[in-house]
Amino acid sequence: MAAATKGAPARGALLSIKIPRGRGASLGLYIARRILWLIPVLLFVITITFFMAHLAPGSPWDKAGGRQLSASVVANLNLKYGLNQPLWVQYGKYLLNVTHMDFGLSYQYQNQTVMSIILESWPVTAVNGALAFLLIVPLGIGIGVIAALRQNTWVDFVAVGFSTFGASVPNLIIGILLIIVFSVGAYRVTGGNVFLPTGGFGLDQHLILPVITLAVLPIAFIARLTRSSTLDVLRQDYIRTAWAKGLKERLVVMKHVLKNSLIPVVTALGPTFAFLVTGSVIVESVFAIPGIGRTFVTAVQSRDYPLILATTVLFALVVALANLVVDLLYVVIDPRVRLS
Amino acid sequence: MAAPAIALEQIDWENPEQIGLWKDAWQRFRRNPIAVLGLVIIGILVLIALLAPVMVALHLIADPLEQNVANSYASFSLKHPLGTDYLGRDLLSRVMYGARISLSLGILVQVVYLLIGGSIGLLSGYFGGRIDNLFMRFVDVWYAFPDLLFILVVMSILSPSLITLFLALGIVGWVDLARLIRGQTLSIKEKEYVEGARAAGSSPMKIILKHLLPNSLGPIIVSLTFGIPRVIFLEAVLSYLGVGIRPPTPSWGVMLQDGYQAIFSYPHQVFIPAVAIAITMLSFSFIGDGLRDALDPRMRR
């Protein structure tokens, strides 16, 4: 039985969020320790990214294709941004600045602080990503559970087929296809009365197509993970017992099946959330969204070191926190899991 | 109540000795038609990849590199069964040739994921405590680390080739699998049968390989099959950035990118490589599901 150990959550609740008694204090300690661990993790991320970025061939002042800057201009720029100093000195100075939240000036967007660029582009990405996440959780888990319950019926085949094709077609093409149908096609058919915008950002119908594009692959993946782990659970003896007791399908699914099949799903949802709220270059390019995903890729391409570092730190923070939440959810889902 | 009777009939009284977990699994795998179908399709794809140059030499299919700009975006015909691309190159031979790079990268990189992600996930989940904390904080770092930057640096230090590409791709993507397996392990290791095995004196290694690994197979398979298209797409992005496979060489990812240019007028350009990727993925999920069923003693019949 899943929840038969002593101190387990109340048996009446569907997906109960009670933490076993006596573990509250140690859990608090665990969370505190994990948050302290963020410091070495971020330091490590900054260190590797710093040296990797500087190691990557090319310099921030290379001009693609056209005429290159003269040597004296490059020397002056290097002087201005401290790039003429030894790498170790630059690294030390950067760390010192980061401790008081100074992430420096961007190279490509001159006279803008990295912080202001991030504060401008991140909310745009986060809104799209968070909405996509809200779509992914119910749809992914729902489709997965239904496919597993109706294994080897047409419902299951449609779900598996959808998820296979959802994963075999890149985001780029899904985005373009949606534009063809719901922007261009709908515009032509309805004479411009009903159609969705092809791009841009706004807190209105502009969100619909990018959010769907972002959600397709994660929905496919979460649905398949849920289906597979639900199938595992459905074969367990306690599920047979639950059916035999004559419990309603809804109760069996919510109380017994879901609770025991969610561990891999929750594991995958953590990083999925982190990736979504920190942006996809492709979706942002297709829909012309001024988000942080594009900022990051142009930063890598133009060797904008401060911007690369700051976006990476932001991502590291989101991933580490998402994974912390996942680890805490394990205890909620399966009270036997012990975090030390 | 017929179950016990059937179970009795199943026992092979002539042959009472135990067969190993994996040997038993193979015997049951062979009896699963969908799993065998998956294996056959992958076999055919591998054969196509291997024989593509021979077929070109024998003029069975056109040369995948031969351009004929006057005949670009041609439709289906006898000479070009799947039509031609934007440079008038034969799509059938390109998709067959593309299997060489896409299939080998797509599959082999999953092996690297399984080795690195599998061992870190299993060790971390089983031993817990300090080992788990160290491994998982390392995973957090690895997640955060920009893949693109890493691959750019690796490929610029080492010279770009299929081997370096394969290493670079393999090293960046194992973290998802490590987290998935660790999560499963954390939960499974508390189950009664693992406790039983430990009480009976099984070594940690034996518990990991005989109980934890087979019981976390479901999510592993899903993660690996979804990893295949991810690697194929990433290869295309890299070749677009000039650090992957050199342009005239066809791969499914590159074909998707080429076809994307004309997606409004000639959607089949995109459809062909996408179907190839989907078939590969589907066959692997068939094999994976069959493997999982074969390893599940409750499915024995």
Describe the structure.
The complex is a heterodimer of chains A (340) and B (301). Chain A is mainly alpha-helical and 340 residues long. Chain A is built from 12 helices and no strands. In chain A, α4 runs antiparallel to α5 (154-168) and α5 (154-168) packs across α7 (208-234). The relative contact order of chain A is 0.15. Residues 1-13 of chain A have low confidence and may be disordered. Chain B is mostly helical and 301 residues long. Chain B is 71% helix and 0% strand. Chain B has helices at 3-10, 21-30, 33-57, 91-127, 129-144, 147-157, 162-172, 175-188, 192-199, 204-215, 217-241, 252-260, 268-295. In chain B, α3 (33-57) crosses α4, α9 (192-199) packs antiparallel against α10 and α12 runs antiparallel to α13. Classes of the chains: A mainly alpha (340), B mainly alpha (301).
Distance between the termini of chain B: 16 Å
Kindly report the average pLDDT value of chain B: 79
Series of secondary-structure elements of chain B, N-terminal to C-terminal: HHHHHHHHHHHHH
Most strands sheet of chain B: none
Give the largest chain-chain interface (CB within 8 Å).
Answer: A-B, 60 and 57 residues
Residue windows where pLDDT falls under 50 for at least 5 positions of chain B: none
Tell me the major beta sheet of chain A: none
Let me know the number of strands of chain B.
Answer: 0
**Helical segment tally of chain A?**
12
Q: Count helical runs of chain B.
A: 13
Secondary-structure element pattern of chain A, one letter each = HHHHHHHHHHHH
Compute the separation of the termini of chain A in Å.
24 Å
Share of residues in strands of chain A: under 5%
Structural class label of chain B = mainly alpha
Radius of gyration of chain B: 23 Å
